[in-house]
Amino acid sequence: MWPSLTGGSGIGRIREAWRFLRGLPPYDGGSLDRRNSGWSPIDGTGEAVNQLSRDLVRARARDLERNSDTVCAIIEALERNVVGSGIKLQAKVMDGDEENDALNNQIEALWQEWCNFKNCDIGGQLCFSEMQKLAVRRRIVDGGLFFLFCTDRTAKIPLRLQIKEVNELDTGNLECNGNKVVAGIEVDEFGKPTAYHFKKFDIWGWTGESVRVDAENVIFISNKMRTSEVREISPLARILSRLRDLNQYIEAVAVKERLMACLGVLIAKKTKGFAIGRPDDTVQRKPDRPRSRRLYPGMMEEIDPGDDVTVINPSGQASDAEQFISLMIRSIGASMGLSYEAVSRDMRKGSYSSARQGMIDDFKTYRMWQHYLIEHLCKPVYEKFLDHAVLSGQLPIPDYFENRKKYIQCAFIPGGMSWIDPQKEVNANQQAILSNQTTLEEICASRGNDYKEVLRQRAKEKRFMEELGLTEHFENDKTGGGNNESQQDADEPGEGDKE
Fold it and tell me: Most buried in the list 127, 128, 208, 418, measured by CB within 10 Å?
């Protein structure tokens, strides 16, 4: 039956009929013509595809983590903006009641004490904010990280965290307790993890034994892209080749520039060589003389008699290197949800408007990572912390386990973002509060602050100023628009706009 040829242009209808007669697929991407002849991808479930390359991808990503400045820039940009100095706790047990406010303050004080590296880490090396940074780093490079809940009964609050990397999973087991074990993770019939099998190590390395840990005592920070995945895959997998090409290109450009900076002279001696059975004027090359030499700045080398003399003065420059490197970094940063400026730290070609738009988009990426950390790491750890604090008697709450949902209410406040022109943002926030479009809590949270702490500190400062007999003055711009000079400077186009 002929396909419908109604609508569209005449060329489109002819092409559709031609495809129907030739039996071609409706999508160009599904054709097997010359353009797609070498495109034969591997498909399957997420776990089956990942298992083929997981270990090699992780090893290559770790190699680039050690040797690629671009990977380091991506990691540090996310560590710096997602975690920063740490994600702060704000307990919310019936917020507003005086008695519960005192309990909230007690919980926050205990939490801050527990987050010290001596109290939260079983190894006594990392504080909780450093654990959060490590979770971000390993999620980028390895694809995931494990946090195990441990108990130290001699401690004030017995809860401890142990960190394990993804390659510590024992992938040799295939079945346990009637459940399938997929690459070290024991799952039920619905694919839900029920336990994790870790390798057991001693001072000499892996003992060949494994330890089974129930899933309720494990937090798996992972980078999951498909529902059929059980294990992790590094998000750098899609750009590893590009990162390696960029690394090698930068090295090649550096070598080229070093060679072009060299000036050398080769000196040929006029003394003729003498050899038994040969005339006196026969030129004889020394047998131990190397035929290739290393070029270095200011070199002066002797060459064999009779050889030509040449002054080595390389010229030229890698004129397209900066443009190519910028293009690669822009592509790599976009694949990770980051702007070119965030990865390269190059702010030369942007105006105030473009820089602010880039910061807003980057901040959305950071917010996604912050939300993941809060939901998958901070809140589960906080709930365990409260359980141990109550059981150890540090928090006297008689009805805690009867009303646990009430007492675990909390909010975690990540670090905020500093704007390019703070005066504009302050004026905008002031107008938003006056017009009831936002709240002080939201504004303080966007800057990484607790509004209660801000108000308490301001009240304390005002009381102290009154005691000293000081008067506080606030001079507001009558126009409400900020400084005209600042406005003009901020909107002035940069190099990119001029181009």
Answer: 128
